[in-house]
Design brief:
The protein has helices spanning 2-13, 44-47, 51-60, 66-84, 90-104, 111-119, 130-139, 152-162, 184-194, 208-217, 245-251; strands spanning 19-21, 29-31, 39-42, 48-49, 125-126, 143-148, 170-173, 201-205, 221-224, 240-242. The chain is globular and about 55 Å long. 40% of the residues are buried. The strands form 3 sheets. A 6-stranded parallel β-sheet has the order 7-6-3-8-9-10, sandwiched between helices. It has a two-stranded antiparallel sheet with strand order 1-2. Strand 1 (19-21) and strand 2 form a beta hairpin. Residues 1-35 have low confidence and may be disordered. It has 2 domains: 2-49 and 125-251, Rossmann fold (3-Layer(aba) Sandwich); 51-122, Putative phosphatase, domain 2 (DNA polymerase, domain 1), CATH 1.10.150.240. By secondary structure, it is an alpha/beta fold.
């Protein structure tokens, strides 16, 4: 985590004492936020835990590799559709990816099975560290948003499923611009909705490629590297990184 600690030190040098916020357990802290950071935008998977979807797929089709193939094709299709300028929304992309994966692996995917698997994307839980980390940040006055490829329906359903009503000021879907991250147009909706400068929005990415895209767009960026993956070799680095939202709180402290 050298990247996160070094960049975090640079951020601290730019900060002034901001707010005192109570947080549960080890997240209780006196936090110093950058004077320039007015909002934090989260990718949906930084908030919602997708592992239940893939565990369910693997339970339905044991030892098939379906979950890995589905997940990989899902994001490949978003990038292909952006490049080809042939947009369909993320629900459609996710379903297309599931059908492709099943066909590639020669699995029988009935309409009922397909619907059952897809509906798992409407009932995600929050990662366990979400409430303890985000509540004190929100109370401090920092504006919290979600900026995701998920459709508005998917976002609304998962906010309800995770019990996060009222946590986010803005819930933004890239469907608004008919594109996907890392297209700069997709990141720009955060600036347009919040009506502040991009330098004032800290973007919290779940995927390394999303951290790269946000950084290239001009957002200060924190990579929530829950999967402990190496960083992308794209010539830019996030300003901070960590494996939990507790690490995000420390980065802001």
């Amino acid at each position: 985590m050298d990247e996160g600690s070094n960049s975090g030190a640079r951020l601290v040098r730019m900060t002034r004492r901001g707010f005192i916020a109570g947080a549960a357990g080890s997240l209780a802290a006196v936090a110093r936020l950058s004077v320039s950071i007015k909002a934090i935008a989260f990718d949906a998977f930084a908030v919602f835990d997708p592992r239940s979807v893939f565990a369910f797929a693997d339970a339905m089709y044991p030892a098939s590799g379906l979950s890995d193939e589905w997940r990989m094709r899902q994001f490949e299709y978003t990038w292909l559709r952006v490049a080809a300028r042939q947009y369909v929304d993320f629900w459609h992309v996710t379903e297309d990816a599931l059908v492709f994966a099943a066909n590639k692996l020669k699995l029988e995917l009935s309409p009922d099975s397909r619907a059952t698997l897809m509906n798992e994307y409407l009932r995600l839980s929050a990662w366990p560290d979400v409430g303890p980390a985000l509540e004190p940040i929100r109370r401090s006055g920092v504006r919290l948003t979600i900026l995701s490829n998920f459709t508005p329906r998917m976002l609304a359903a998962n906010i309800a499923s995770a019990g996060l009503h009222g946590m986010f000021e803005q819930v933004l879907s890239t469907d608004q611009v008919k594109s996907y991250k890392p297209d700069p147009l997709a990141y720009k909706i955060g600036v347009d909705a919040l009506k502040i400068r991009r330098e004032e929005v800290l973007f919290v990415a779940f995927a390394g490629w999303d951290a790269v895209g946000a950084k290239l767009f001009g957002y200060p960026t924190f990579w929530l590297n829950r999967q402990r993956l190496p960083r992308e070799e794209m010539g830019v680095s996030s300003d901070g990184s960590g494996e939990t939202l507790g690490d995000l709180v420390k980065f802001l402290t």
